[in-house]
Amino acid sequence: MRDARTVLVSGNWKMNENHFEALKLVQELAALVRVAPIPEGREVSVHPPFTSIRTVQTAVETDHLPFLLGAQNCHHEERGAFTGEVSAEMLAKLNVAYVIAGHSERRAHLGESDVDVRRKVDAILAHGMRPILCVGETLEERVAGAAVEKVRTQVSGALSGRSGEVVGGVVVAYEPIWAIGTGETASVQDAQDMCATIRSELSRLAGAGAAAAARIQYGGSVTPDSAGALLAAPDVDGLLVGGASLDAEKFVAIVRSTA
Ligand code: 13P
Hints:
Blueprint: E1 7-12, H1 19-35, E2 42-47, H2 50-62, E3 68-71, H3 88-93, E4 96-101, H4 104-109, H5 114-126, E5 130-135, H6 139-143, H7 147-159, H8 164-168, E6 171-174, H9 188-206, H10 208-213, E7 215-219, H11 224-232, E8 238-241, H12 248-256
Parallel strand pairs: 1-2, 1-8, 2-3, 3-4, 4-5, 5-6, 6-7, 7-8
Bound molecules: 1,3-dihydroxyacetonephosphate.
Residues 12, 103, 175, 180-181, 219-222, 240-244 line the site of 1,3-dihydroxyacetonephosphate.
């Protein structure tokens, strides 16, 4: 079971929104939360593509908007001959608070392994940011009864050997691959069961206190209709939203949702 803690709702914009569109989206979000503030106990992060982070940062900081900045990835090295890559230090300098690590799309299309993801988590933590560690199984793995083992391995691959204090500060996002972008949300029970499994893995790795303090998000076709019931599940501490985060009204409805 979790501590009473701030719920984190994150919008992963993926490869959408050039910097003009990003500014428009953040302004639409700002207008909506100005009318009715974000409920107490909810934190919101937005994760634009790299080319739009600076634009969103300027809007957020100039207008004191209640959004934390996020990124979708980083390279594990500090600097050097890694053409096309962006380091954790570069993101920290833009006041990025949360960095997604190991999204299933990167694991699948770019071959990121658990070892790569662990190195990214190292770099994110070294620069004072929080990782949103993505884990989740394919449909084949679920059908074969291998989902729990896969998710536990992904969690321990990135987080074993870290202190309770560090583990207590991370975010793990359970994103079943079969639910991403498919319109098929996991049932509340399935989401709860796997988020509870993740918490038990965190407890095994770093102790019950750390596991209770860490936040576990669900992601995969979240909509304003499904968000409230998911957030009411005892081990779901937040949501990682893809498609619906590109629509300001839908995203703010998700942020506000209650069971
Ligand atoms: P969708 O909400 O579009 O299914 O995406 C989920 C996701 O991958 C967020 O990281």
